[in-house]
Each structure stands twice: as C-alpha cells, then as structure tokens.
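INFO  loader      accepted 1 record
INFO  loader      residues=171
INFO  predictor   begin
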Amino acid sequence: AMAIKENREYLIVFDTTAGNQRYMIGFSNNDNDLLDLDQDTFGICNDTDIPPDRLPNGDILVNGVPSCVRVINLSDCGNNIIFGYTAGTTPPNGPNGLAVPSSGVNFSGTPPTAEFDSDGSTDKLGSVYFQQTIRGYSYCVRISNSSGSMNMWKWDGDADNTGVTTWTEIR
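INFO  predictor   done
INFO  writer      dumping tokens
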C-alpha cells in the first residue's frame, strides 16, 4: 500500500541473523539493504525540506539503520518469536507441500528482500515463516503472484504434533 500511495518502490529487508531477527521497511536508492544513510530512502533521511508529517527531520543511525527506516524486531512481537523454526518443532513441509527454509525466509538476495513496485506489483515471489518456539506455532506469509497479493497460513501442527503436514489459510 505504501508503494502505491507514494508512487515508489518499497522494500522489506529480512535480517535473520541470530542477534537481530528483524525486518526493515523502506526504500533504497542504491543497493536494496536500507542501511546507507546518505543513499537510502532516496536521500530523504536527514532531508530538512521534508514536512514533519512525512518523515522526521534530522534522522540518525539507530543501531546501524537510518531512523526513517521502519524496523520491526521480532523480540518486540512477543516472547520466543523467530524466523523459521527450532529443533523439535519443525513443520515437515510448508503450505502446498513447499519446503520450509531453515532461515525462515526464501526471498532471494543478500540480504533477502521483498520488493514492491509503485503499482503494488512484484517480480520477487517468496515466503516468510515465523514461529513461537515454546509451542511450535508456525505461520507463513507468502507473496504468491506478480500482482503482489499475499496469503497467510498457520501450520496445523505444533510442538506436540510435529508430524502434521497440513496448513490452514487464514487470510
């Protein structure tokens, strides 16, 4: 929706490293990683000509990320939430029988990135898996076609029922 509203490409960049477990939303001018203060968000980080209701003036690096890039840390979403899965709570397959990547993200790129064009379309299809590690509740968000439409799935298994192979679409 932001890509369409602002008529520009938006990115979701996934940082699945053990210490980070986060994803970032913004737009990039040069390398699709959202970490370069002078290049990313097309130079409007630190741009004092932008009205305050659009992006804050004087943006700074916060934990290595320009503060005008939205960062969602999985640890802020609840206890024991991770990308992928932990040993003993591994879904045997993903929705429609697709493999579940151990990193939890099967978008391409380094780092893995979902990209949305200004009309909301995408040429990068992929899935992101999240898990609550104590109970093994697993979810999958998938961009399934070039129009940018997304589906969300919940694994019908859990830590006590790891052999279950079915997923239920919830959106």
